[in-house]
Specification:
- This protein is α/β, with parallel strands linked by helices.
- The protein contains four helices and five strands; from the N terminus they run E-H-E-H-E-H-E-H-E.
- Helix 1 packs parallel to helix 2 and helix 3 packs parallel to helix 4.
């Protein structure tokens, strides 16, 4: 059973569709969900924080309306590393993340692929 589910969210259009899958899993497992936003300092724009906040609020509302307990965490850094660090720090049971809309790093590797390599727990990747 997955007691704690980590859902890293980005600003892609697909983020809320992936959130729906994460919520479904959390409901079926009786999990609490942690929604994680990772800002990349070198890519931060003026209006970016405002749109991230709106997206996080929307994801939190959608999660809570589904009857799933959730917490929102915002961090800065390289997404794959921060996601894995938070998963380890909070001892999460599973990471649920999407493949679309996630940026490639300097090695042209997707964030999801890197998380799969580094994660301290299972990773469910939603296409």
């Amino acid at each position: 059973m997955f007691e704690t589910l980590l859902f890293p969210i980005d600003q892609s259009r697909e983020a809320l569709a992936t959130a729906s899958k994460a919520i479904e899993l959390a409901q079926s497992q009786g999990s609490r969900m942690i929604i994680l936003s990772v800002a990349q300092p070198e890519k931060t724009e003026m209006n970016n924080h405002e749109s991230i906040t709106k997206l996080l609020d929307l994801a939190r509302t959608k999660t809570e309306q589904a009857g799933v307990s959730c917490e929102v965490i915002e961090r800065e850094g390289k997404p794959a590393f921060v996601i894995c660090d938070v998963a380890d720090e909070l001892n999460v049971d599973v990471i649920v993340m999407g493949t679309r809309g996630i940026n490639l790093d300097e090695n042209n590797e997707s964030t999801a692929a890197r998380v799969i390599q580094l994660a301290p727990c299972p990773v469910l990747v939603v296409p």
